[in-house]
Amino acid sequence: MKINVFKNEDEVLRGLANFIVEIASESISTNGQFSIALSGGNSPKKLYELLASPSYKNKIEWNKVHFFFGDERYVPHTDSQSNYLMAKKAILEPLELSYKQIFPIDTSLSPDEAAKAYTNDINLYFAGTEPRFDLVLLGLGDNSHTASLFPHTPVLHDKTASVKAVFLEDQKVFRITMTAPLINLAHHVAFLVYGEGKAVAVHHIIEDKTDIEEYPAQLIKPQSGDLQWFLDTGAVAQLKRK
What we know:
- The protein is of the alpha/beta class.
- Helix content is 29%, strand content 19%.
- The protein has helices at 9-31, 42-51, 83-92, 111-125, 180-183, 199-207; strands at residues 2-6, 34-38, 65-69, 71-73, 135-138, 163-168, 173-178, 188-193, 226-232.
- α1 packs across α2 (42-51) and α2 runs parallel beside α3.
- The protein is globular, with a radius of gyration of 17 Å.
């Protein structure tokens, strides 16, 4: 695990954008393509807009990039809460990508069927080989969840490298999420976290004793890949080891 700390939000975003440029270029040079699983939420939205901006859009061969989603809210793709819609507006449409490069979760199906269909889509993409994404982007919730791996949900104990439906009892809503074993197969996993409001959760994940029921993001431990955190000074305020 590598912890990258930057002075402020803008520097964190640029640091992660530069990292993505580096590993995407390396993957495209070696394998002719680059697979990335996107995260939802406000923090990655700013990252996606930066990657689609004039400063970065010409640094990656975007026609060789394939976009997946680490999790999704169980809402239509036209809903304002949709991770797909956010990504579509922030990066997918601005880069004028082909629909063949984009793999959204089909929320027109039932939650379980949507999860099964997405697992199948991923397995077809990797053509029978182990489903190892080049990069999985993750955020971190105040309650220490990541993707849609929420505290005290059965998916935390799922041992399959797959996609599952999750029902959040307190919110009475479904989510669709990659399991921790699937995320942990990735070549690279990157957390994007900034702001003092995330400092306690960052401390729980990085420094507290393992308790996946309370701190689900502790599940993220790539089997043979690279795990990196991109944080600002506010987000590391509660860490004892700076």
